[in-house]
Amino acid sequence: MPRVPAQLRKRALGMLQGGMRTADVARAINYNARTVRCPRQRYRETGWTADHPRSSRPCAQDWYIRTSHLRDRYRMATTTARITPGMYNPSISAQIVCNRLREAGLRACRPVVRQVLTRLHWQQHRLWAQTHRRWTRQDWQNVLFTDELRFCLTRGDGRNRIYRRRNEHYTETCTLERDRFGEFLRYHALAVVNKYA
């Protein structure tokens, strides 16, 4: 149930005591009728309209979870849950860590894989772009763009991973039979051709 601000809660209670119906009050303050009904019942039973204290994670713990993941982006939520002591329980769950990170705007994503570029690489990229910026269609006709694709007939190309326990190097389930000639490369070439020349 959403928290209603104290000022709005008192205003709703005043409308109810003035004789308005619960549905009309809910429509007037733009909340659900049940949200209006509960503070009214609490006021009848206890004489006050403030919310009951809610148990939640301490702010220091939220700060620790957020900063530890900002410092080490590759840390898993289960690791953080294991080393973060709880307030009432001995440990917190990984789901709590995920929720706190989501509230902080951090989401689990795959890292972007790219080549490491040095300052010399960046300079060469910029120089190439600047020299070819003003090329016309006629200049590009003399260039041949090539590409290669790798096709593997079997999965034994070293890209797949296998999960194994310790000392299971040579068991039958952890070995993979592979053909010697199970892959080939295919080359593509693309050239700019001016049909209307």
Overview of the structural elements:
There is one protein chain. The chain is 42% helix and 9% strand. It starts with 5 loop residues before the first helix and ends in a 6-residue tail after the last strand. Helix 5 (77-83) packs across helix 6. The chain has eight helices and two strands, in the order H-H-H-H-H-H-H-H-E-E. A two-stranded antiparallel sheet has the order 1-2. It has 197 residues and is mainly alpha-helical. The relative contact order is 0.07. It has helices at residues 6-17, 22-29, 33-46, 59-71, 77-83, 94-103, 119-132, 137-140, and strands spanning 144-152, 183-191. It folds into three domains: 6-46; 59-103, no CATH class; 134-163 and 171-197, no CATH class. The chain is elongated.
**Secondary structure: helix percent:** 40-55%
What general outline do the C-alpha atoms trace?
A: elongated
Number of spatially distinct domains: 3
Order of helices and strands: HHHHHHHHEE
- Euclidean distance between termini CA atoms: 71 Å
Instruction: Count the DSSP helices.
Output: 8
Number of strands: 2
Q: What percentage of amino acids are in beta strands?
A: 5-15%
Instruction: Give the structural class.
Output: mainly alpha
Taking all residues together, what is the mean pLDDT? 74
Calculate Rg over CA atoms. Answer: 32 Å
Main β sheet profile? 2 strands, antiparallel
The low-confidence parts are none
Strand order of the largest sheet: 1-2
